[in-house]
TrEMBL record:
Pfam families tied to this protein: Abhydrolase_6
Origin species: Paracoccus lutimaris
Listed PANTHER family: AB HYDROLASE-1 DOMAIN-CONTAINING PROTEIN-RELATED (PTHR37017), ESTERASE_LIPASE_THIOESTERASE DOMAIN-CONTAINING PROTEIN (PTHR37017:SF11)
Family matches, as InterPro entries: AB_hydrolase_1, AB_hydrolase_fold, Sec-Metab_Biosynth_Hydrolase
Stretches assigned to the AB hydrolase-1 domain: 7-220
Protein name: Pimeloyl-ACP methyl ester carboxylesterase
């Protein structure tokens, strides 16, 4: 039987590796036991790409990279490693060369943009009392509270970091669009997905936190990517 690939999960802004908890459980049930969730510093695209690159280089064998939100920019920037066999985008940024997440968002701002505020140290936060309605309106109040309190703020400058050579131009791609996303405009998701010519695009009536609210469907998409890349 061919070797199953390792799955490397890359979180985005305002969250950490634990945002993948429900997807991890789903993948494990399906027989994926080589699972990794990188914890990125969210200090710059270069820093986050290098942290993820180092993790992937420790894996001997094929890898499927999965990026949520800004994590999509990370896998776009570093996903050219030879053992990376596919890229899965979960309500994620997929910038082209010379594009940044901030530039894409400014063109078509998301609904919850006014609920993001900087602190005196240059980090951007989602206002705690607005987190549920902004990031994860399809989760329970309790789960949203935990996400709000434990959110991991990015340096504001990271929004403006441009991708250099997009890995999606040379790797097979799968994309999930959240049609009720208030953090990345669904129109931007449609645009980014279409120009990558993905193997498959799925639409979920989900918030930005589709990885938490629809883990079964996200695991299905990852499983499809792993299967179709020959493993």
């Amino acid at each position: 039987m061919p070797q199953r690939p390792a799955i490397v999960l890359v979180h985005g802004f305002w969250g950490g590796a634990a945002h993948w908890a429900n997807v991890i459980k789903q993948l494990h049930k399906r027989g994926y036991h080589d699972l990794h969730a990188v914890e990125n510093p969210l200090t710059s695209l270069a820093d986050d790409a290098e942290r993820t690159r180092k993790m992937v280089k420790q894996i001997h064998g094929p890898v499927i990279l999965v990026g949520h939100s800004y994590g999509g920019a990370v896998i776009t920037e570093m996903g050219d490693l030879p053992n990376v066999k596919g890229l899965v985008y979960v309500a994620a940024f997929a910038p082209d060369a010379g594009e940044s997440p901030g530039g894409i968002s400014q063109a078509k701002p998301p609904e919850a943009f006014p609920n993001i505020a900087p602190d005196s140290d240059g980090y951007l936060w989602i206002k705690q009392d607005k987190f549920h309605e902004s990031f994860c309106q399809d989760l329970s109040e309790g789960d949203a509270l935990v996400m709000a309190v434990t959110q991991k703020a990015p340096l504001a400058s990271t929004f403006g970091d441009n991708v250099t050579v997009p890995a999606w131009k040379n790797k097979p791609v799968w994309y999930q669009i959240s049609t009720h996303d208030r953090m990345i405009n669904p129109e931007n998701q449609e645009m980014m997905s279409a120009r990558m010519n993905p193997k498959r695009t799925i639409h979920l009536a989900a918030s930005h936190a589709s990885l938490a609210s629809h883990p079964g469907e996200i695991a299905d998409l990852i499983d499809e990517a792993a299967s179709e890349t020959g493993y």
